[in-house]
Structures are given as C-alpha cells and as structure tokens.
C-alpha cells in the first residue's frame, strides 16, 4: 500500500485526488492533508481518511477545524507555510502538490529531497524555481510525475522514443473563453465571463490564467524543466476541443498524441499508479461525439501574456520568477475587480521592466525576488 500526502486537498485537484484514492480502494492511504481555509470540507476529509498529520492556513482555521472535529479523533494540526513544508517532509511515498502559486516551491523541494514521488499539479513552483527543484530531484533520484494534463500527456508520449529523438514538444491550448474575441472586446470582459472555462472546471487562478493564455506560457516553462526541453523545440497549438492533451513529434516525423476526456482524475490516477495503468470507472472518450478536432496557431497579439511568459522563460534566471509573482498579484487584483482583464499582462510586463531580473544563484535569491516582485505589483495594482 502507498501512503500519500495531499497538499491543497480542498481544491479542484485535491478533491479529485481523494476521489481517485477512494476509487483505488485499499491501494493508497492518505496520511497527510493540507488545506487553506475551507474547514467544512477539510473536516469531512479528516473524518473520512483519518490522516495522522494536517496543516491549515493559520491559527483561526486551526481553531475552526478543531471545533468541527469535536467528538471525532483528531490528527496533529500544523499551520502556515512552515506547516505546509513540514507536511511535505513527513514520510510518505507520494506527495501530491496541488496548492496554488509559488507557495508550492518549498513543499516541492521537501518532497524531492527526501526522494518521495512528487505528483506535481502546482506548475508555478517549476516556473519560479524549476532548476532548483529538478536539480534536487536528480540528486536524490526522486520521480517527478506531472499531473498537469498537457505534461502528463507529454510524459506518456515520451515512452515511444528517446529524449534526444524528440523534435518538438507540442502543447495544446483550449484558447480559453475569449479565444475568438477581438482586442476591443477583451478590454470589457467581466470576472464572471473569464471564470467560465469552455472545457475544464478548475480553481479560480488557473481559470483566469487560461483566459489570458498565461496558463500556456507557464506550461511552456514547466515543460522546459520537466523534460529538459529547449525552448526552440516547444510549440503551442490552439486546440479548442481539449481532447488531444499534447503531442510529441519525433525525428522521423512520427507524432505521438495522448487523447482523453477532460477529466483531471485521469492524470491524477496516472501519477499515483505509474507505471501501472488501473481500470477505474470514469467516463471514456466517445469519438462519435466529436465530428471535428481543430488546430490553429496562437495569437500572441491578442494574448500578450503567452508571449511575455515565453520571453521570460527564454531569458531565464529570475525573469520567470518575477513574471509568475506579478501574474499571481495581477490575477488576484482582477478577481477583486481592481484592474481590468487587459491590465493583467500590462502589470506583468511593467513588473518585469521595473525589477530588471538578473541571474539566480540560490533558492534564497529566488524567494527574495518573488517577494520583491509581489510588493511592486501590489503597489501598482492597488495604488498603495
Ligand atoms: N484544477 C485543475 O484542473 C488544474 C490545476 N493545476 C494546478 O494545480 C494547482 C492547484 O489548482 P486548483 O486545484 O485548481 O486550485 P484551487 O484554488 O481549487 O485549490 C487550491 C488549494 O490550495 C489550498 N490553499 C490555499 N491557501 C493555502 C495556504 N495558505 N496553505 C495551504 N493550502 C492553501 C486551498 O485551500 P482552501 O480552499 O481550503 O482555502 C485549496 O485546497 C495550481 O497550481 C494549478 O495551476 C494544473 C492543472 C490542472
Ligand atoms: C486541465 C489542465 O491541465 C489545464 O491547465 C487546462 O489545460 C487549461 O486549459 P487551457 O488550455 O485553456 O490553458
Ligand atoms: Mn494544463
């Protein structure tokens, strides 16, 4: 039996991870849970899975959880980012990192340093600190198995050949809810419109990233680190149906694609059971429902966030860290209706210009730059 820590257990990926654990029956035991502030959901998860260790955002959340657990058996409950890191460091076979944002850096490192399998949904940790995390994984021999649907697809497509035989890693993008919008239309979109993803039901931050296409930019950098892929060989292709999750083209011109329904339980399950494939009862792809699968080049004029992210990835050093930090603040400000949709990439670009990021010598420098970029972007967005 495998033991697993689920970081971000109350979120979109976290709750689906627990569905997969349930469906796998006795094969996996949840021994650690981490959530932020949704104590109603967390309390039910604690009662159901009986973890030995839990962490929550702060003391207020811990008090609320304890009240909700009165009468039930209680795990040890930690708090804050220290608690999150301690949960990733707690001995388990697998760590599912499904918290949002650069907060995921420390737990990713803790997991790979102790050679746990890192089932990685949190893409921001690789964007900001990918070299450090992948280097630590190489040093310990830890497996990093992508949960992000495109990277899970690439990972599966790569069993067909050697890494040095890959000519292109092709990341598909839905294009988001505004795929066909003009620049003028994009200036007036509302939060509720941006939160309506055409295919996937996800947390708010990644849903906005999909709408700006920043998500695909983050995924280009994620692919660069996961597969040691040069940026020249990573291509983004708009595929509105989100059925082909990504593709790998080999030197001989053969293209391997992974297709499936839009259901994150599949990549989660794959990351938990790899190298085994297990039959679980999720709906299957019904080809007869799709009379066409379409593909197009992305438009970086209308979606400048994609261009900014790719440029930051190519620049390397601290640029992706600054870009990611500014984007997290910009998305939060958009969700709070403090800035317009089209100001998200503007704030990212302005922060990159202001910070003039250089090289990253240490993880401490990355974390310091993350804080600095956030402070700057916050001041601009909120005018404080
Ligand atoms: N959703 C998806 O389909 C996909 C997501 N991803 C990536 O996976 C990650 C998670 O995404 P998603 O599940 O959609 O996000 P959600 O916003 O749905 O979930 C985020 C989780 O993080 C928890 N959290 C918030 N604050 C803290 C804190 N201070 N300490 C500890 N935990 C905290 C939340 O807890 P609470 O709710 O209790 O406050 C919640 O459990 C992101 O990096 C995203 O880009 C990648 C591919 C697909
Ligand atoms: C489910 C998943 O992996 C998301 O990253 C999804 O792919 C977002 O869709 P976009 O292609 O619109 O960014
Ligand atoms: Mn994805």
From TrEMBL:
GO terms for biological process: isopentenyl diphosphate biosynthetic process, methylerythritol 4-phosphate pathway involved in terpenoid biosynthetic process. 1-deoxy-D-xylulose 5-phosphate binds at residues 123, 149-150, 174, 197, 210, 215-216, 219. NADPH binds at residues 10-11, 13, 36-38, 122, 124, 203. InterPro entries: DXP_reductoisomerase, DXP_reductoisomerase_C, DXP_reductoisomerase_N, DXPR_C, DXPR_C_sf, NAD(P)-bd_dom_sf. It catalyses: 2-C-methyl-D-erythritol 4-phosphate + NADP(+) = 1-deoxy-D-xylulose 5-phosphate + NADPH + H(+). Pathway: Isoprenoid biosynthesis; isopentenyl diphosphate biosynthesis via DXP pathway; isopentenyl diphosphate from 1-deoxy-D-xylulose 5-phosphate: step 1/6. SUPFAM superfamilies: 1-deoxy-D-xylulose-5-phosphate reductoisomerase, C-terminal domain, Glyceraldehyde-3-phosphate dehydrogenase-like, C-terminal domain, NAD(P)-binding Rossmann-fold domains. The keyword Amino-acid biosynthesis does not apply. The keyword DNA damage does not apply. Mn(2+) binds at residues 148, 150, 219. Keywords: Isoprene biosynthesis, Magnesium, Manganese, Metal-binding, NADP, Oxidoreductase. GO terms for molecular function: 1-deoxy-D-xylulose-5-phosphate reductoisomerase activity; manganese ion binding; NADPH binding. Its EC number is 1.1.1.267. Catalyzes the NADPH-dependent rearrangement and reduction of 1-deoxy-D-xylulose-5-phosphate (DXP) to 2-C-methyl-D-erythritol 4-phosphate (MEP). Belongs to the DXR family. This is 1-deoxy-D-xylulose 5-phosphate reductoisomerase. It comes from Alicyclobacillus acidoterrestris (strain ATCC 49025 / DSM 3922 / CIP 106132 / NCIMB 13137 / GD3B).
């Amino acid at each position: 039996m495998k033991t697993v820590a689920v970081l971000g257990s109350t979120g979109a990926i976290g709750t689906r991870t627990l569905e997969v654990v349930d469906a796998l029956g006795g094969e996996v035991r949840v021994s650690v849970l981490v959530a932020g502030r949704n104590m109603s959901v967390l309390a039910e998860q604690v009662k159901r899975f009986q973890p030995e260790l839990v962490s929550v955002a702060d003391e207020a959340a811990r008090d609320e959880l304890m009240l909700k657990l009165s009468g039930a058996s209680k795990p040890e409950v930690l708090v804050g980012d220290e608690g999150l890191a301690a949960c990733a460091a707690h001995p388990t076979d697998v760590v599912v990192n499904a918290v949002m944002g650069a907060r995921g850096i420390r737990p990713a490192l803790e997991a790979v340093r102790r050679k746990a399998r890192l089932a990685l949904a949190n893409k921001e940790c690789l964007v900001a600190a990918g070299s450090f995390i992948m280097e630590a994984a190489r040093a310990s021999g830890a497996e990093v198995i992508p949960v992000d649907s495109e990277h899970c697809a690439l990972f599966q497509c790569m069993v067909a050949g050697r890494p040095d035989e890959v000519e292109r890693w092709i990341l598909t993008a839905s294009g988001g809810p505004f795929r066909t919008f003009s620049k003028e239309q994009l200036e007036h979109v509302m939060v509720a419109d941006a939160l309506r993803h055409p295919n996937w039901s996800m947390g708010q931050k990644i849903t906005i990233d999909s709408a700006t296409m920043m998500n695909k930019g983050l995924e280009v950098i994620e692919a660069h680190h996961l597969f040691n892929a040069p940026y020249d060989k990573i291509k983004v292709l708009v595929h509105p149906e989100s059925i082909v999750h990504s593709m790998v083209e080999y030197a001989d011109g053969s293209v391997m694609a992974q297709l499936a329904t839009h259901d994150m339980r599949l990549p989660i399950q794959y990351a938990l059971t790899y190298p085994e494939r297990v039959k679980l009862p999720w709906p299957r792809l019904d080809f007869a429902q799709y009379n066409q699968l379409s593909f197009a080049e992305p438009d970086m004029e209308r979606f400048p966030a994609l261009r900014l992210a790719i440029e930051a990835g190519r620049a390397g050093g601290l640029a992706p860290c600054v870009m990611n930090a500014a984007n997290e603040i910009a998305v939060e400000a958009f969700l709070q209706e403090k800035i317009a949709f089209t100001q998200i990439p503007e704030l990212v670009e302005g922060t990159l210009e202001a910070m003039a990021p250089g090289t990253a010598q240490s993880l401490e420098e990355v974390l310091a730059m993350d804080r600095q970029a956030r402070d700057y972007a916050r001041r601009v967005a909120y005018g404080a």
